[in-house]
Amino acid sequence: MSTVALNGITKRKRTWTWLYFLLPSVAIMLVFFIYPILLTVFYSFTNLALTGEAAKDLNFVGLDNYSRMFEDPTVRTSIWNTLIFLIGSAVIGQQVLGFLIALLMKSKNRWFRRIIGTIVLAGWVTPEIVCALCLYSFFADEGTLNAILTSFGFSEVTWLYTVPMITIILANIWHGTAFSMLVFQAALDDVPSEIEEAAIVDGASKWQVLTRVTIPYIKDSITTNAMLVTLQTLGVFGLIYAMTGGGPGTSTTTLPIFMYNQAFVNYQLGYGTAISLLLLFIGIILSLFYIRSMKE
Question: PROSITE patterns from the entry (predicted)?
């Protein structure tokens, strides 16, 4: 047998060997990721329900769930609330605050960084439901914030009813800022000090060094962190549900809250799965936007 033929057989054996090692991962992905998505897509075209006649007789209803979804004014309100929550707590809140904390810690000594880092990380490692209960106690009518205000002679404010969106935005910022801080801290540590020193020698101010040297150098880390934080915040449910339940009214009803209410409160699983696919579609669009930004 020729050497070329032997090499071809060897390459095929290596290929099959790699495929054998990949089979468990592929099987897990098919069972726990691809199959649930396909099942969700199928159920979104049905009248699947937990009670009533639809619970006994599953029927294909075509695009009825989607037409109902786009005609429902609560869906538009939920999309708007979701975007406000995303921009306020993820794109602006966690990104900016995390960057500022990392920047302030950059030139500090090791003990200062450890103490501040531990304090900020406390909010991140706290389970979401515990974080929600803590912030609920803080913003409640007889909570910590009103106790502080009344001690200085100010009147109490019903935060969870007057400005409920701001309260859940602040809660999510407190809960998730540590992740952004860690990402930016690692990115800032990788910025060569020689570049910044050269810019200072050339007469650049601290602001110019930050905006024209440091931030452009870590722009990939900024975009990656923005994508991860945005996608994580897009699916936040427990924090909002425990603090406001989506209310008062629909003022804090985001898409995950609305999806839950339709699927497990009103028992309309078919309609709920259609809303979940809308949420998935928004996540895909945002991911493509961030990926394209990283390429540019």
Answer: ABC_TM1 (PS50928)
Q: Which two tokens stand for residue 39?
A: 């099942």
pLDDT at 118 exceeding the cut of 90: no
Measuring CA to CA, which residue among 121, 129, 229, 111 is closest to residue 171?
129
b/e burial code for range 144-173 (CB count within 10 A of at least 16 → b): ebbeeeeeeeeeeeebbeeebbbbbbbbbb
pLDDT digits 0-9 by tens, 146-167: 999 999 888 888 999 999 999 9
Give the N- to C-terminal CA distance of the chain in Å, as an integer: 51
Q: What is the pTM of this model?
A: 0.86
pLDDT tens sequence across 233-282:
998 999 999 999 998 989 999 999 999 999 888 889 899 999 999 999 99
Task: Assess contact for 262 and 272: CB atoms under 8 A.
Answer: yes
Burial readout 64-76 (b: 16 or more C-beta within 10 A, e: otherwise) = ebbeebeeeeebe
All structural domains of the chain with their residue ranges? 3-40, 72-295
Q: So what's the pLDDT on residue 16?
A: 65
Confirm if 243 and 160 have CB atoms less than 8 A apart. yes
268: left (phi over 0), alpha (psi -120 to 50) or beta: beta
CATH superfamily for 72-295 is MetI-like (1.10.3720.10)
